[in-house]
Design brief:
globular, TIM Barrel, 11 helices, 8-stranded mixed β-sheet, alpha/beta, 451 residues
């Protein structure tokens, strides 16, 4: 009789425990909540404090308050800006071939080492590969990267491998380029023409042919300035609305009016026609003597990008946030530069699922702080402009996972109580392995030495 009572009580207790566990699991409907940050989302016209919930790699809810109990993990981001993951539409990341002095080789960088630490979650390789070698690039870099890597396909079939290849008119084939682009829609998102030094129009005409067939934009690095193909004609007659002109503040190809210092007639007619203008800083395409008067004249960039490669990242360019800092120093606001690094570039690429924090969008998120002080920002001529603000990436989330955390804001204290169910850590972080046989927050005995 007594045994039956004990058994009955045990059943009741076990049932209650199971019910509590099931209820608790249902309550934790979200993988992660970013709580109390100042959200900047240009697509949705959000510029205020909001919470953001993430589930299964997607944005699940954006609201003034989301109950932390509904999430496995809650991260306090009060005092920080919370933005869509940054979209850099001009990088060179085809680093896998080992070819010397080549953007399809050792001038490129593997993306993951240079993206998450500055809040970048999507990059576009700007023409390092052409239709002949794109699939090698896809296999060895795109498919192996945690960063989302998209591509502009070079109109030169051999890709960006130096003048011997890039001046070869016979390897510029709009039909073959478009065929490869159509084979990988959503991965190949544009066509690139770059570094051509000849007087002919063929590279740009073939790029537009490919763009028309594949229904994707063309990006132009105009390289050598030739009187036979003036910039005005390119922007007034050759490119289409929605195409992209990069290196817009270089001043090397007719971007600046020599008399007023403001935007040239070429840039003005291009903007009037609906062409987008991209920074593409690089190692040799951004000058204070151009950018400052052109910006003061009211001509602002549509998108901020780096033109990241092994030379530019160790020179005046450095990284995405350093380029954004330069535009803050020239008078733009933080919401403006965030828009130029998120929604604008995504829209230019016709990838409107990116660069925003809409419910259902990929949970690619950057958490940024602003430091105040005196900072010097360099251009390609080793001259500097002083500024008072610097953006710092505190946290990066890619596809709903924490992939970079500068100061451990997503982490618990090693000797404190866990704030989330560590057994479910795979729902919010890629780092699920734990020391000491997987035990979480393991405590040393008081008599044991701490290693």
């Amino acid at each position: 009789m007594r045994i039956d009572k004990y058994c009955s009580a045990a059943v009741v207790i076990m049932g209650a425990a199971l019910l509590f566990t099931a209820t608790d699991a249902r309550a934790q409907e979200y993988d992660m909540v970013l709580q109390g940050g100042h959200v900047l989302d240009a697509k949705n016209h959000v510029d205020t404090v909001e919470d953001i919930a993430v589930k299964d790699g997607l944005v699940a809810e954006v609201a003034p308050h989301i109950d932390p109990k509904r999430a496995v993990k809650t991260i306090d981001v009060k005092g920080f800006y919370v933005t869509p993951g940054l979209v850099d539409i001009h990088e060179h990341v085809y680093a896998s071939t080992g070819e010397a002095h080549s953007y399809a080789g050792d001038l490129s960088v593997y993306p993951d080492g240079f993206t998450f630490r500055v809040g970048v979650t999507t990059v576009v390789d700007a023409g390092s590969s052409g239709w002949r070698n794109f699939e090698d690039f896809k296999e060895h870099v795109i498919d192996r990267s945690k960063t989302r890597v998209l591509a502009d396909l070079n109109i030169v079939g051999a890709g960006m491998r130096g003048a011997k290849y890039e001046d070869n008119l016979d390897d510029m084939d709009g039909q073959a380029t478009a065929k490869m682009a159509l084979k990988y829609p959503g991965v190949i998102v544009g066509i690139k023409s770059a570094h051509f030094t000849g007087p002919e129009w063929k590279p740009y005409e073939q790029a537009v042919i490919a763009g028309n067939i594949a229904n994707i934009p063309v990006m132009i690095d105009y390289c050598a300035r030739r009187i036979e193909r003036p910039l005005y004609d390119l922007l007034a007659t050759k490119l289409r609305p929605g195409d992209i002109y990069t290196h817009c503040f270089s001043g090397l190809r007719g971007e600046q009016d020599p008399e007023t210092g403001k935007a040239s007639k070429a840039l003005l007619i291009g903007r009037q026609r609906g062409i987008y203008f991209d920074v593409g800083h690089g190692g040799g395409s951004f000058s204070w003597t151009v950018a400052i008067p052109v910006m003061q004249g009211g001509f602002l960039p549509d998108s901020i990008s780096t033109d990241l490669h092994v030379d530019s990242m160790n020179a005046g360019m450095k990284d995405m946030l350093n380029v954004a800092d330069k535009f803050l120093a020239m008078g733009q606001t933080i919401p403006q530069v965030v828009t130029e690094m998120t929604w604008n570039p995504a829209h230019e690429l016709k990838q409107d699922q990116l660069g925003n924090l809409s419910v259902g969008a990929p949970a690619d998120i950057a958490v940024l702080s602003v430091e105040h002080g005196n900072y010097g920002f360099e251009d390609m001529y080793n001259t500097k402009l002083m500024g008072t603000q610097k953006l710092i990436c505190q946290l990066t989330v890619r596809a709903g996972k924490v992939v970079y955390d500068l100061n451990g804001i997503s982490s618990d204290m090693w000797d404190g109580q866990p704030t989330s169910d560590i057994k479910q850590a795979k729902r919010w972080t890629t780092f699920t392995e734990r020391p000491f046989g997987g035990a979480s927050h393991q405590k040393f005995p008081s008599s044991a030495p701490r290693m």
